[in-house]
Write a structure and sequence with these properties.
The protein is α/β, with parallel strands linked by helices and about 200 residues long. The chain is built from 6 helices and 9 strands, in the order E-H-E-H-E-H-E-H-E-H-E-E-H-E-E.
Length: about 200
């Protein structure tokens, strides 16, 4: 019986990347398990996905807190109650406080729909098309206090085709997100991801 890494997932919406993680962790040989899903929105469909999979959920409304850090500390408390070892952001639409980013340093990862460091922030598909890029993609990275910053674990790219719209491009990128996010979690859980001087080295 392998000891599985305990994962907490933070969401705000439909949770398609959460579903990819749920599907991956359902495999008996996957070295991680999701023990908690937290949403800042009570109507996030990702909560239903988690509940259908028998995963514990919690709603922590950011509007109930005076400061960003107070909200983050409430999430931190919940995560630690479940002995979470790795936190995954999956469509979590809140900027995290520097305190949270440092508290979970190298134990907090995000998936972003661009080939970082290109196109940080929102509307990345529109930005890639407008910039005349020939390729676009997704990045799994460790979280740092700065927006969409931090050591890159994995990336996947897709070509930008003539006539692509933000929606068609987003759909192709999302397919890649669903592949590389579980892959990154597996690498982390297997102890194969090392951060040295803010660069990721993956052990074979």
């Amino acid at each position: 019986m392998i000891t599985k890494l305990k994962v907490g997932v933070l969401i705000s919406g439909r949770g398609s990347n959460l579903q990819a993680l749920i599907d991956a962790t359902a495999a008996p040989d996957f070295p991680a398990e999701i023990v908690l899903v937290i949403s800042n929105k009570a109507d996030a469909y990702g909560l239903t996905r988690a509940q259908n999979a028998g995963i514990k959920t919690a709603v922590i409304n950011h509007k109930d807190f005076t400061t960003r850090e107070d909200f983050d500390r409430a999430m931190d408390q919940k995560l630690k109650q479940e002995n979470v070892q790795l936190v995954c952001l999956a469509g979590f639409m809140r900027l995290l406080s520097p305190w949270f980013a440092e508290e979970w340093r190298d134990r907090l990862i995000n998936i972003h729909p661009s080939l970082l460091p290109k196109h940080k922030g929102l509307n990345t598909h529109e930005a890639a098309i407008a910039a005349g890029d020939t390729e676009h993609g997704a990045t799994v990275h460790f979280v740092r206090p700065a927006l969409d910053d931090g050591p890159i674990i994995l990336q996947a790219s897709v070509p930008i085709m003539p006539g692509d719209t933000p929606d068609t491009l987003a759909a192709r990128v999302l397919e890649q997100e669903h592949i590389i996010y579980p892959r990154a979690v597996r690498l982390y859980a297997e102890g194969r991801v090392n951060v040295i001087e803010e660069k990721v080295f993956i052990v074979n």
